Amino acid sequence: MSKLHVTTTVNGDEVEYLCDPRETLLDCLRDKLNLTGAKEGCGTGDCGACSVTVDGRLVCSCLMLGVEAEGKQIETVEGIADGYVLHPLQKKFIEYAALQCGVCTPGILVAAKSLLEKNPDPTEEEARYWLAGNLCRCTGYDKIIRAVMDTAAELREAS
Ligand code: FES
Ligand code: FES
């Protein structure tokens, strides 16, 4: 099958790749752009480990084709930190020990950042609901939610 040429923007940088029309965005990010932060936990849209944003919308990159990224603005976990300076969410995840194996963590960080951009003052229920599509088999979720809620409070104080 002939490859298709895709030009898109990932974390602010214009990039291009050739892909099979059936390849997922997740595989294109990982295998063609070496952005291996997004993980394949299930490949069926159930775990959230592959979460990225596309034109500001949170999506499972395992459910999107690489060719559909043409002309889009993609944000991945690799774009969350500012160079070597961690995003407040990343600092809080460390502070609260909100990760263990880390497979879910990139997707949860992307999803949590998306939540706080849309809703800087979420209730705990809203945060839990927003992150319900991000499964974690290790942490029991409470540390994750505490880290997200504390980040939200810190960002509100700073604004
Ligand atoms: S790998 Fe995409 S939702 Fe699980
Ligand atoms: S830290 Fe292991 S799946 Fe979440």
UniProtKB/TrEMBL annotation:
InterPro entries: 2Fe-2S-bd (IPR002888), 2Fe-2S-bd_dom_sf (IPR036884), 2Fe-2S_ferredoxin-like_sf (IPR036010), 2Fe-2S_ferredoxin-type (IPR001041), 2Fe2S_fd_BS (IPR006058), Beta-grasp_dom_sf (IPR012675), Diverse_Oxidoreductases (IPR051452)
Keywords: 2Fe-2S, Iron, Iron-sulfur, Metal-binding, Oxidoreductase
Domain 2Fe-2S ferredoxin-type positions: 4-80
GO function term, MF aspect, one: oxidoreductase activity
Protein name per its UniProtKB record: Carbon-monoxide dehydrogenase small subunit
Pfam families reported in the protein's UniProt record: Fer2, Fer2_2
Superkingdom of origin organism: Bacteria
